[in-house]
Amino acid sequence: MAVHELRIAPLPIWLDAGRLLGPAGPASDPGDASRGWHLEPQPDASVVARAQLDGARAADLAARLRGLGFEGQPLVCEIQPPLRRSQVRRARTEDARRRRVGTPGFSRAGTRLDEVGRMSLTPELLAMEVAELAAGRPVVDAGCGAGGNAIAFARAGCRVHAIDQDLARLELARHNAGVYGVSDRIQFVHADARAWVAAQADPGAILFVDPPWGADWSRSGCDLASLPLLADLVPLASNYAALWAKVPPSFATAQLLEGASGDARALFGAAEGDYRRVKFVLVRRG
């Protein structure tokens, strides 16, 4: 069985590389479980990952990582010797099959979503993971959409202002909050989030922004210019206790964290099809 040398770079230091890359070492190697990946920190605060994989696992990994990027840079997957075309085709077919099984959005019957919500709603399990980090502090959800994050924050004990300028989407959020029994903890605001945030300073609240990405966001590199709502709200965040942003995996987090206290956290899926996929990155500043 052929063994392939892999080099994956650049990986951000805040990423769980083991979760993303999966087990390393030849499948026949009895020490596989303990060998893992060799992670090499770089001067630019990125990480290079090296390992040996058999052809099937190397092809599977290459299919999952194809076209991805982190920190605004495309991820490069070098494999020597190169994979056979038949291995690449099989791996990409299997990857497409896995993608059909993702972490669900809302879990309760009776919730409603529009087309945008079906594409962009934060999966409930991940929304709750983010919400628990707020530790009950008040939250301003600037652009709440169908309410996935606002509802999770409310379920975690936060008081929430949920803002959206699309009245139809705001009504979806209101309805879904009723399904989850948290309407009394959310104040729904029909307004442009930029204007509302500028006028309503709250030094005790978290300003949470889930900017619209659209279907065509760049998976190899993304920056503030690609997320105009977030870019407009960043200068206003000084009137709040913290700025939290849910951004694409390829987003250049340094644009938000440079010169400020904070961190970045990759949120992976929980289902078979997205367990090793970064669904989004949570950047917390302040």
Automatic annotation (TrEMBL):
<feature type="region of interest" description="Disordered">
    <location>
        <begin position="87"/>
        <end position="109"/>
    </location>
</feature>
<keyword id="KW-0808">Transferase</keyword>
<dbReference type="InterPro" id="IPR019012">
    <property type="entry name" value="RNA_cap_Gua-N2-MeTrfase"/>
</dbReference>
<dbReference type="GO" id="GO:0071164">
    <property type="term" value="F:RNA cap trimethylguanosine synthase activity"/>
</dbReference>
<protein>
    <submittedName>
        <fullName>Mg-protoporphyrin IX methyl transferase</fullName>
    </submittedName>
</protein>
<dbReference type="Pfam" id="PF09445">
    <property type="entry name" value="Methyltransf_15"/>
</dbReference>
<dbReference type="InterPro" id="IPR029063">
    <property type="entry name" value="SAM-dependent_MTases_sf"/>
</dbReference>
